[in-house]
Design a protein that fits this description.
This protein is of the alpha/beta class. It has 2 domains: 7-140, no CATH class; 145-359, 3-Layer(aba) Sandwich (Rossmann fold). It is built from 12 helices and 15 strands. The strands form 3 sheets. It has a 7-stranded mixed sheet, sandwiched between helices. Helix 8 (213-225) links the parallel strand 10 (205-210) and strand 11. The chain is globular, with a radius of gyration of 22 Å. The termini are far apart. This is Methylase of polypeptide chain release factors. GO terms for molecular function: protein-glutamine N-methyltransferase activity. Pfam families: MTS. Keywords: Methyltransferase, Transferase.
C-alpha cells in the first residue's frame, strides 16, 4: 500500500486505499477531525482505542440526517448514508500481523477478523467503522438471534443478513403447505432460516441455495446447530441450482431495486431487480408441474417510488405465472415504531407479503 510498505488495505464497502493520511491521537478535537475527513484526508489513529470510538461517535453527531417529505425520504436517506459512510470511513486503525491491535485498551479482534475472512499474515489498515462492524458481527454470531417460529437461535455470520425482522419468517411458518409436499427449494437462503422453518414443518428434503459463499457457510453452520443437516442440503448457485426442480420453491429476494453499498446491503438491495427478475423468469423451469412458489416481498420499494405494484404483477404475468393467494403482515421491528426514524412514515406503512404463485396452466 502506498506510504505503508508491507501493509495491506481492507474495506468491506470496496473503498479504495486512502491517498492522504495523517496520524492523530487523543489530542485531536472532533471539529478538526471533521474538517480533515470532509476534505478527503484519512486519519490513522495512534491513540487509545476508547478515544478512537469517542471520536467516531463525535463525528457521527456532526452528520445529522436531513428531514424530508415521504416522497423524497428514501432517496435523501440513502444520500445521507453514503455521505456518512464516506466521512466516517476516514478514521483508520492499523492492525499488526496476527490481526493484533496495539492501541491501549484495545479489544482482541483476532476471531472477528478470521470470521470475516480478513487475512492476518501481514499488517493492514482498515476503517474503524469497518472494524467495529466486524466486532458487532462476531457478537451477533456468538449470541445468535432468537427465532420464535423455530424456538431456537439463528447465528448470522459476518456479511449475512440477520433474521431480526421476524414477520417474513412467520409468514413462511404459517402459510399452508401444499398437500403431500415431499421436497422444497429455498432460493437465496442467507442464514438458512427459511430452509430450517420448512424442515421443522415436516418437509422431508429441502435444497437451500445462495450465490454468496459466506451465506452458504452460515446456512450450513445454522442447520448443523439445529440438527437439520440430514434434511437440508446447502449449495452455492446463482439463483437456482442447475436442473433443480421442486413442488415448493420459496424465495425472499432483496426488496429494494438499488445499489448495495456494503455486504449487508446486498441482502436488501438488488440493482435493477436482477435477482427478482431472474427468479420469476426461471421459476417455471424449476417448479414441478403441479407445484407452487412462495415469493416473500415487502412493498417498501413501492412506497418509496422505486417500483410500482403494476411492475411486479407484470413481471409475474410475463413469466407465465399467476397469483393464487397472498398473505400479508405488518412490521414489528423497532424502527417502524420510532417516530424519530427518518423513514418512519414509510416503515409504518410497509406491508410484507407472501405471494403464492403457480404456473398459468395450473393457476385455475
Amino acid at each position: 500500500m502506498p506510504g505503508f510498505p508491507g501493509c495491506s488495505w481492507y474495506s468491506e464497502t470496496g473503498a479504495p486505499p486512502p491517498r492522504r493520511v495523517v496520524t492523530a491521537d487523543d489530542t485531536l478535537p472532533a471539529d478538526g477531525a471533521h474538517r480533515l475527513a470532509k476534505a478527503g484526508t484519512s486519519i490513522l489513529w495512534t491513540g487509545s482505542f476508547p478515544g478512537a470510538r469517542r471520536l467516531l461517535t463525535a463525528l457521527d453527531r456532526r452528520l445529522p440526517e436531513r428531514s424530508a417529505d415521504p416522497a423524497q425520504a428514501f432517496r435523501r436517506h440513502r444520500e445521507a448514508r453514503a455521505r456518512r459512510a464516506r466521512i466516517l470511513g476516514k478514521l483508520l486503525v492499523r492492525l499488526e500481523p496476527g490481526a493484533r491491535l496495539t492501541a491501549s485498551r484495545a479489544p482482541d479482534v483476532r476471531v472477528a477478523c478470521a470470521e470475516a475472512g480478513w487475512s492476518a499474515e501481514r499488517a493492514f489498515l482498515c476503517s474503524l467503522r469497518d472494524l467495529l462492524g466486524l466486532i458487532g458481527a462476531h457478537e451477533w454470531r456468538r449470541r445468535g438471534v432468537l427465532v420464535p417460529a423455530l424456538g431456537a437461535r439463528i447465528h448470522p455470520h459476518h456479511g449475512v443478513f440477520s433474521p431480526v425482522r421476524g414477520e417474513y419468517v412467520d409468514l413462511v411458518a404459517r402459510a399452508p403447505l401444499p398437500t403431500g409436499v415431499r421436497s422444497a427449494s429455498d432460493v437465496g437462503t442467507g442464514t438458512g432460516v427459511l430452509a430450517a422453518v420448512l424442515a421443522r414443518r415436516g418437509v422431508p428434503s429441502v435444497l437451500a441455495s445462495d450465490s454468496s459463499a459466506r451465506a452458504v457457510a452460515c446456512a450450513e453452520d445454522n442447520l448443523a446447530r439445529l440438527g437439520l443437516s440430514g434434511r437440508v442440503t446447502v449449495t452455492e448457485a446463482d439463483v437456482f441450482p442447475a436442473r433443480a426442480r421442486a413442488p415448493l420453491v420459496v424465495c425472499n429476494p432483496p426488496w429494494l431495486p438499488g445499489r448495495a453499498v456494503s455486504a449487508l446491503d446486498a441482502a436488501v438491495c438488488d440493482p435493477g431487480s436482477r435477482m427478482l427478475r431472474a427468479f420469476l423468469d426461471r421459476l417455471p423451469r424449476h417448479l414441478e408441474p403441479d407445484g407452487e412458489a412462495w415469493l416473500i416481498m415487502s412493498d417498501f420499494a413501492e412506497l418509496a417510488g422505486l417500483r410500482t405494484r403494476e411492475e411486479l404483477l407484470g413481471r409475474i404475468d410475463r413469466a407465465g405465472l399467476k397469483v393464487v393467494e397472498r398473505h400479508d403482515t405488518t412490521p414489528r421491528h423497532r424502527r417502524a415504531l420510532d417516530p424519530a426514524d427518518p423513514l418512519h412514515a414509510l416503515r409504518a406503512a410497509e406491508v410484507t407479503s407472501l405471494w403464492r404463485l403457480r404456473t398459468s396452466t395450473m393457476a385455475g
